[in-house]
Design brief:
2 domains; homodimer; DNA-binding; 206 residues; Tetracycline Repressor, domain 2; elongated; mainly alpha; Arc Repressor Mutant, subunit A
Chain lengths: 206, 206
DNA sequence: GTCATATGTAAGTAACTACTTACATACCTC
DNA sequence: GAGGTATGTAAGTAGTTACTTACATATGAC
């Protein structure tokens, strides 16, 4: 068994890319095998069926929420700087998982349970970490009173929509030309300071 | 030509629903015709091919951005109340267009140009209106200085992600039990007032 | 009543797809 | 060199799909 593991992985990689481009039905076993540099027969010998290959593809992704690892570093920063680091990290990890994100979007109906599970691992886990971050800062009175869970949803939602619009819908590479930092900074500013003017005149106008 | 228009519309409606459930490849012409209550042959007589039916499906959606119509009403409200109305209206119109939203998500790769066009009409048009709203209030000093375009992206992004998570990923009906108003209120509060505590102590902590 | 229009029934076709079977070959281990 | 393991070649199968052809039927307009 020299390179059997490598073969299996190459097939899964090819499948991940192809399914993310053409969808589960559009990605044929023949083309997946061809892109992996193996025969169709080899694909079936490894996975038995297309469906099981797809399950393996979904199952291989494990999201040790990387955010957890950078939180110590974040805790040493100011609130705004911390959010900046979190925001950029989140977007970069979305970018790394882009094929999987696309599969999640297209294949929710085809494989609801597994896809939702992935979604949970990817988004909800991150949200939990962020929620605790907010709650901690609220105790220290750095942050005002608000629902930390909804706030985490809001912050990640802004970023996720940004990612989907630019990378997936428009096909733009957000990592080029320092756009990422600049845009995140703008979003963080809004999230930290809100939009109302500071003099408390937020009641009525006209 | 008694009910020829009705037939064509029924086919498009059936196709919209089926494609949103199973994707373009997963929705067979036979099942579409069956759901529309016609023969497969009738479908092909009307549209010539599955591809052209799909184009018709996408083309039929016209988004007179309904937000534009409610803006006069919004202008009479306070900033927060205005955002509340805008937010709820946006979510409700997403909910109405849910099948189309799902198609947009799944079929970006299959039909990039047309789908992007729809996306623009649906999201970007709304964003423009919101951007002008912000810019107007900034002139009146009701709002502080910030990039109105990114702010519009942020606000709609929060709402869109909320919609996608609850309605599409989790299959929850957001219109039930007053959840909609309550959640929008929470998001609006965050967007208006931000998250930092009011006493300006937003520099450092620990 | 004739004619055009819209739809139906029935049968079929060519292409493709996931998957299989039978047999051969290369490589590694012992 | 014997045998196990991973892969390849070649051919094929059963099912499905988009789409077609030929013929019949109903309906409304004039």
């Amino acid at each position: 068994m020299t390179n059997t593991v490598a073969t299996k992985d190459r097939i899964i990689d090819a499948a991940t890319l192809l399914v993310s481009e053409k969808g589960y039905l559009g990605a044929t076993t023949r083309e997946i095998a061809s892109r992996a540099g193996v025969t169709e027969l080899t694909l079936f010998r490894h996975f038995g069926s297309k469906e099981r290959l797809f399950e393996a593809l979904l199952g291989r992704q494990m999201f040790l929420p990387r955010l957890k690892e950078i939180m110590p570093k974040v805790d040493a920063l100011s609130y705004e700087e911390g959010l900046q680091v979190i925001g950029e990290g989140f977007l970069l990890s979305l970018k790394e998982r882009k094929p999987l994100i696309k599969i999640m979007h297209s294949e929710v109906n085809h494989y609801p349970d597994k896809v939702r599970k992935i979604y949970n691992q990817l988004i909800d886990a991150t949200r939990e970490v962020l929620k605790d971050y907010f709650a901690g800062l609220q105790k220290k009175k750095v942050l005002r009173a608000f629902g930390p869970d909804m706030a985490a949803k809001a912050f990640l939602g802004m970023l996720f929509s940004y990612f989907r619009t630019e990378e997936i819908m428009r096909g733009v590479d957000i990592t080029r030309g320092g756009r990422l930092s600049r845009d995140v900074r703008e979003l963080v500013d809004l999230f930290v300071n809100g939009t109302a003017s500071r003099n408390g005149a937020k009641r009525r106008h006209s």
